[in-house]
Design brief:
Blueprint lengths: L12 H7 L7 E5 L4 E5 L8 H9 L9 H9 L2
Antiparallel strand pairs: 1-2
Amino acid sequence: MRITSKGQVTIPAEIRERAGLLPQTEVEFEFDGKVVRIVRAKAGKRDGRGARLVAHLRGRGDVAMSTDAIMALTRGD
């Protein structure tokens, strides 16, 4: 495996699956002077995937309807 000019490598699928490294998983690098390790970042206060999606979508709606109006529309009232 080679490191690209941007410092990137591809982690083989089997290793990603065994380690539970899904897309958007935060990782950290550890170096002890001889060995580099990739480890899952500590949970801390980082938002989960759902929170990131909500934050991304917040304020993007362009329909000025009340919740009652939307519910009536979806129910066919």
